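Practice problem: predict the structure.
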Amino acid sequence: MRALALVALLVLAGCGERAPDGAVTGRITVFAAASLTGTFTRLGEDFEAANPGVDVVFNFGGSSGLARQIGQGAPADVFASAAPSTMAQVVDAGGTAAAPVTFARNRLEIAVPRGNPAGISGLADFGDADAKIALCAEQVPCGAAAKRAFDAAGITARPDTLEQDVKAVLTKVRLGEVDAALVYRTDVRSAAGEVEGIAFPGADGTVNDYVIAPLAAAPDDAGARAFVEHVRSDRGRAVLAEAGFDAP
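Answer:
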């Protein structure tokens, strides 16, 4: 299993097929939201173990950027988005082979560097011009969810940096480059020991539905559908729950 840049994907994309025993073989390319990096990497390993002839290749990034790449013809078998609105761009262009399904939910949490040196206590601190703040850009799902939180709380956020995916935001916190950020609860958990999480009132309003679908132009339609079912299986749900995702 490999995570490759888009250029490499364009070169390496290939077709898969079913072995005589029904196992999937060949290469399956999965475009997935950055916040799924840890869980999908594990699920990809499981899928490869169950199908020894298959190679799962991941392209992780901001959902909006991935949808744009798919629309531009990037070869991919599966798309997993952190929000239905981003998936809708692909659906509206006729890019899915089946109706998207919700497989997990996630919500935002305040992330601060270990020890919380700036003394961040809540969402109101994101409106403090003296605080160093990182947020996702509004066009990606984590940024859209953050905007909902700020609008509901009547806070005008003053970010020092806007990133294109949540992992980039989390890195700013881990390196101590910012005092606080809004990331998914699962990202705080994945960086345990390096960052600390602070829950805030209204977090229920930041819940994003994660949706997945096989793609119409999939080089490996059978493999794409098999991987989607793997994500939705009991094993998939267990891995997602362990990472902190809510069940759909």
